[in-house]
Every structure is written in structure tokens, then in C-alpha cells.
Design a protein that fits this description.
Blueprint: H1 3-11, E1 20-28, E2 32-34, H2 41-44, H3 47-50, H4 55-61, E3 64-68, H5 69-78, E4 88-91, E5 98-103, E6 106-111, H6 114-123, E7 128-132, H7 134-142, E8 146-154, E9 162-163, E10 175-181, E11 187-192
Parallel strand pairs: 1-7, 1-8, 3-4, 3-7, 4-6
Antiparallel strand pairs: 2-9, 5-6, 8-11, 10-11
Length: 194
């Protein structure tokens, strides 16, 4: 199933005009999305070999990005143009709330919590937001706010790092929408929540 077909089968539903939240992450075979200090070199070595992952279609389908401070700082310092000018919304209790200097061509706004972020996005009429960063994705899952997630597992064991999933207040039962093998021995799965 292509990304467009996945969206057509419910991945873009927006109840009552609210913003929906979606994730697209790469992880190691042992379930880490980054090394202990946020290292991504192990994942980046697969970039050229993975071929078509559907990321470009996914990225085109979202209006804004929502991420935590750690992901924001990592991307700002390593590749400020990675998000191609799409607005960035940072969740942080330590950064000052409100508009910040741009990251490349992307405007940056900081929110102290998810409730404030959701309110701001709904007010702005944002339909789909890309949730990026492990802890932020975990927080959206724990609050029952993530609509779906695309996970690309690459064949490497890194042994330690930031886990893909974290604690949840109760068991979560996502529905498997699609699984496919892509190049370099990677497997990509799409899950829908709710």
C-alpha cells in the first residue's frame, strides 16, 4: 500500500476540524531512534541505500512540524534546511514561549506544552502535523493524540540509545495498516492509532 493509499484509508481523518498528528521514524532493529547522545550516524549510513521510503510523500502531506527541544537543537545545528521551510513548533518548558529566530527558511514557535500547541494549531487551521523526535512521539502516544506512525527498521543493532517507544498509562493497541520490505534489508510498517 502506498502512502497516498494509506492516507486515503483513514490516515488523514481530522475530527471536527482538529489537527491530526502523524509520525515517520527510522529505528534500529533493537528499537532505538538515536544513540545515547542523539547520534544518527548509524541511521544516516542507510539513507542512500534505502531507496524510496515514502518520506517525500509523507512530508508533502503535512502542514507543520511539532518536535521537542532536543530534536530541534540537533536539526538546527546539523541541517537547518532539512524541513524545507515548513513551520516548526517546538515543545519546550525551558525555551521562552512564542516566536523564535527562524531555522533556515522555517519559522519557529515554542509552546510550553501539548495543550498550547494543539490550541495554536487549531486556531491557525492546521490540518496535519508531523510529530518528530522520540520523546515527543512518545508523549503524543501516551496522550492518545498520535493518528498514525510509519516506522522504518534498519538492520543494525546499536545496543543503547533513545528508544522508539516509552511508558504509556495503559496498553495501546495500534492497527497494522501495511508492512513492506524496502532496500538494504529494511522493513517499513505503518500503524494507525485509535
Amino acid at each position: 500500500m502506498t502512502f497516498a493509499e494509506t492516507v486515503e484509508h483513514g490516515g488523514s481523518a481530522s475530527p471536527h476540524g482538529a489537527t491530526t498528528f502523524h509520525a515517520f521514524l527510522g529505528c534500529s532493529l533493537d528499537g532505538f531512534i538515536a544513540g545515547p547522545h542523539g547520534e544518527l550516524d548509524w541511521l544516516l549510513q542507510f539513507d542512500e541505500r534505502l531507496g524510496e521510503t515514502g518520506y517525500d510523500d509523507f512530508f508533502a502531506s503535512v502542514d507543520v512540524l511539532a518536535m521537542g527541544r532536543a530534536t530541534f537543537e540537533t536539526m538546527r545545528d546539523s541541517d537547518p534546511e532539512f524541513y524545507r521551510g515548513k513551520p516548526i513548533h517546538v515543545l519546550s518548558a525551558t525555551m521562552p514561549a512564542g516566536a523564535q529566530p527562524a531555522m533556515g527558511r522555517s519559522s519557529v514557535t515554542v509552546h510550553p506544552d501539548i495543550a498550547g500547541l494543539r490550541e495554536a494549531l487549531a486556531t491557525a487551521g492546521v490540518r496535519r502535523a508531523y510529530v518528530d523526535g522520540g520523546r515527543t512521539v512518545q508523549a503524543f502516544i501516551a496522550e492518545g493524540l498520535l493518528a498514525d506512525i510509519i516506522i522504518t527498521r534498519v538492520p543494525i543493532l546499536i545496543g543503547d540509545g533513545i528508544p522508539l517507544f516509552g511508558a504509556v498509562p495503559a496498553p495501546v493497541y495500534p492497527t497494522l495498516v501495511d508492512t513492506r520490505q524496502i532496500a538494504a534489508g529494511a522493513v517499513q510498517s505503518t500503524y494507525r492509532f485509535g
